[in-house]
């Protein structure tokens, strides 16, 4: 991890390791700690980069884009040139926050021009209805993820690729009884649990990835996967609301139940794996698995709650504050969205939420009494 991204305690630990290595003759020279610029300076430099990118794009609009706006493939070629420029700036590592933000803005604009130009070149309406077009967008984002070494750029590319995959899956499903945008949450029934499986795999293999020096691409991919899983779970949790509004109060389509059942199973699997890793006795490990399964089953109608709980577990496993914050925010939003659902009575929702709280409190009592381990305390 770069020194700029570490806390004071971590920097002190790094300094101590350096001093120990120097005392053993394994390192030479004085320890130099990078000085991080104040946040106000970083914000101003980032804004300067985006402002420079804005003027550069205004120049393109006046000189190239207006002439090529009716030619989709020419627009796509211009966008590809902008992406190539951003790639060169990133690869040469000329440094500076402003230049990195300039490259990011140019790349995002270029990607938009490539996609829009390709859609216009094929036939805009037909392209949007084609699964191949959206699969091409996912492949394009995957290519950029692989070749551009910037972390934020990789995060955005991976997140866009996930979204394109969801639309591709929806296009492959084909016409159904659902009309238009009402059908889009269906692919999330499979993609959200898949994203959770990948997150569990990443967390369990993070040490090996670090040893193999692969965290520079694995970490932004995992962050994007987490954002997609949390956002998709929130969409599934509230999927019955637009359906009920559009159909005048018909029965809910139940897609959140399908995802919730799979996520309950994944919670139990994660709890079992953690109990084994921590070497908990059966008196503590088995109740943990049962509680995870019961909680996931109780909240099967609110997949966002299950994914939020899983995100909390993964965050504690990784000691990651950003993941912890996202998990807490998703839990709050999931409970709120679930409580405002139109397909449940207030009595049923209140009983479910109260039952979930009682279950968690009882689980704590049982685990502390039967586990007797410091880890549980």
UniProtKB/TrEMBL annotation:
The entry's keywords: Membrane, Transmembrane, Transmembrane helix
Q: Where is the DUF4401 domain?
A: 38-369
Question: According to the UniProt entry, where is the signal peptide?
Answer: none
State the InterPro entries in the record. Answer: DUF4401
Looking at the UniProt entry, the stretches that span the membrane are 43-66, 72-90, 102-119, 131-148, 155-173, 185-203, 255-273, 285-315, 321-339, 346-367
Q: Does the keyword Transmembrane helix apply?
A: yes
Presence of keyword rRNA-binding: no
Q: Which organism is it from?
A: Cupriavidus malaysiensis
Q: Please give the name of this protein.
A: DUF4401 domain-containing protein
């Amino acid at each position: 991890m770069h020194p700029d991204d570490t806390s004071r305690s971590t920097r002190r630990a790094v300094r101590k390791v350096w001093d120990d290595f120097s005392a053993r003759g394994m390192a030479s020279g004085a320890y130099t700690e990078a000085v991080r610029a104040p946040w106000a300076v970083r914000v101003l430099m980032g804004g300067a980069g985006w402002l420079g990118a804005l003027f550069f794009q205004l120049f393109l609009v006046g000189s190239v884009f207006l002439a090529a706006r009716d030619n989709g493939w020419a627009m796509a070629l211009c966008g590809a040139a902008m992406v190539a420029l951003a790639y060169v700036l990133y690869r040469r590592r000329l440094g500076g926050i402003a230049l990195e933000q300039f490259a990011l803005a140019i790349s995002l604009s270029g990607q938009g021009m490539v996609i829009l130009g390709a859609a216009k070149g094929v036939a805009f309406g037909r392209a949007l209805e084609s699964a191949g077009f959206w699969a091409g967008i996912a492949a394009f984002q995957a290519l950029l993820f692989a070749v551009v070494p910037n972390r934020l750029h990789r995060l955005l590319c991976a997140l866009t690729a996930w979204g394109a995959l969801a639309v591709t899956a929806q296009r492959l499903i084909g016409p159904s009884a659902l009309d238009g945008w009402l059908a889009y949450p269906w692919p999330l029934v499979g993609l959200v649990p898949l994203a959770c499986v990948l997150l569990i795999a990443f967390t369990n293999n993070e040490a090996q990835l670090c040893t193999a020096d692969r965290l520079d691409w694995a970490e932004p991919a995992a962050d994007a996967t987490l954002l997609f899983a949390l956002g998709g779970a929130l969409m599934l949790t509230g999927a019955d609301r637009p359906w009920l509004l559009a159909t005048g109060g018909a029965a809910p389509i139940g897609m959140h139940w399908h995802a919730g059942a799979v996520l309950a199973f994944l919670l139990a699997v994660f709890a079992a794996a953690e109990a084994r890793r921590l070497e908990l006795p059966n008196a503590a490990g088995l109740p943990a698995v049962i509680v995870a399964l019961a909680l996931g089953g109780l909240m099967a109608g609110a997949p966002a709650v299950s994914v939020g709980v899983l995100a909390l577990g993964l965050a504690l496993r990784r000691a990651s504050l950003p993941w912890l914050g996202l998990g807490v925010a998703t839990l709050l939003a999931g409970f709120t969205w679930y409580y405002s659902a139109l397909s449940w009575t207030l009595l049923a929702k209140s009983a479910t939420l109260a039952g979930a709280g009682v279950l968690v409190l009882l689980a704590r009592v049982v685990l502390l009494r039967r586990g007797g381990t410091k880890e549980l305390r």
